[in-house]
Fold this sequence. Notes:
Elements: H1 2-7, H2 19-26, H3 28-43, H4 49-91, H5 101-118, E1 122-129, H6 132-139, H7 141-158, E2 164-169, E3 172-178, H8 182-198, E4 201-203, E5 206-208, E6 212-218, H9 225-242, E7 246-249
Amino acid sequence: xxxxxxxxxxxxxxxxxxxxxxxxxxxxxxxxxxxxxxxxxxxxxxxxxxxxxxxxxxxxxxxxxxxxxxxxxxxxxxxxxxxxxxxxxxxxxxxxxxxxxxxxxxxxxxxxxxxxxxxxxxxxxxxxxxxxxxxxxxxxxxxxxxxxxxxxxxxxxxxxxxxxxxxxxxxxxxxxxxxxxxxxxxxxxxxxxxxxxxxxxxxxxxxxxxxxxxxxxxxxxxxxxxxxxxxxxxxxxxxxxxxxxxxxxxx
Length: 251
């Protein structure tokens, strides 16, 4: 009874393994002293003090083992939750909710293998936000984060469930389009760009206008992931040299 009452006043953070082990290592010595006194008193009334002490020790040992087992269960549960969280963060970009670069690289390799077997087209769109650094410098990084979230939403709304919208890092994004040729991929890129232009918003420091530079590439026979991405990147830089805010398909 005293143990149950005392554990209520022991916070979980008192021990790395939480309340159970805190109870076992903190309260048990007190309880042991109380029981030892009881054993001594019981000896005065005919019971053997050694027998009472042995029973007390067994009780304390059993209670400690139970507390430790419960604590270990808690650690395992926390570790599983942390592992699941780390795994999710490796797959999903925390800020935008889009896939991460790791997922994009893995999926691109798989889709190229499928293309080799099926012969169906496969395209990639690379794009970044025009003058994104200026948005951060003028309005602050919190506004920059909002801008990235709006761009991500434009991408998400412009693709099919079978496509993969990705944030590669910073203000760089990629779209993986299975069974999509260059012309259709260019239409998707233009749709995202139109959405970005329409997603302008105002903050106390002024208006935030969004635009992007888009490069499109389509896989050919024996195309490697690196080659496909490189061609899209080269097309993107054609747009930048032209003045940004546009779409270019690789030849």
